[in-house]
Specification:
CATH topology: Thiol Ester Dehydrase, Chain A
Number of helices: 4
Number of domains: 1
CATH architecture: Roll
Radius of gyration: 19 Å
Organism: Pukyongiella litopenaei
Protein name: MaoC family dehydratase
Shape: globular
Largest sheet: 6 strands, antiparallel
Number of strands: 6
Pfam family, one: MaoC_dehydratas
Helix content: 10-25%
CATH superfamily: Hotdog Thioesterase
InterPro entries: HotDog_dom_sf, MaoC-like_dom, MCH/BMMD
Length: about 160
């Protein structure tokens, strides 16, 4: 038998404090949990992207090209920077409208077995009439402290209040 709890409010069941566009600050960081990239990550990315180049799935081909193991696609590193993997969408709540732009430089390899450390940092806040644009620097470092991806992305955010 269920019990109705009138003190429970589903709208108040949030993972972190919400912020409006005006409460965000340049320099706010949103660290994304680290993850070690395994065979399943390579398989899932290959299935989703349909990229069938052997550098991403043929160990002997990789070794013949001078790589120690499978080489991840640049986009495989980029997807680690999805804002939804961080607390940012929870901070923005219903104000988040969508992802509108991105650019990235792939500075180093992402190999099978590497541990990736993605992060987002607010670098610009542009207020518009009814919305705002949040510009984020996105980075991925590996376990050797090498910066393997550096870029930016923009989110469109509704101005509240």
């Amino acid at each position: 038998m269920s019990h109705i709890d009138d003190s429970f409010d589903p709208a108040a069941h949030v993972t972190c404090a919400r912020k409006s566009f005006d409460e965000l600050r340049v320099g706010d960081r949103f660290v994304i949990p680290s993850r070690t990239i395994g065979d399943a990550n390579f398989s899932a990315f290959q299935a989703a992207s349909m990229d069938n180049h052997p550098i991403h799935y043929d160990m002997e081909y990789c070794r013949a090209q001078g790589h120690p193991t499978l080489l991840g696609h640049g986009y495989q590193a980029l997807i680690l920077c999805a804002p939804g993997a961080s607390a940012l969408p929870h901070v923005l709540g219903d104000a988040l409208i969508g992802f509108v732009e991105q650019s990235s430089k792939f500075l180093g390899p992402l190999y099978l077995g590497d541990t990736a450390y993605p992060a987002l940092e607010i670098t610009d806040l542009t207020r518009q009439r009814t919305n705002g644009v949040v510009t984020l620097r996105n980075t991925v470092h590996n376990q050797r402290r090498e910066l393997i991806l550096d870029g930016w992305q923009k989110l469109l955010v509704r101005l509240l209040g």
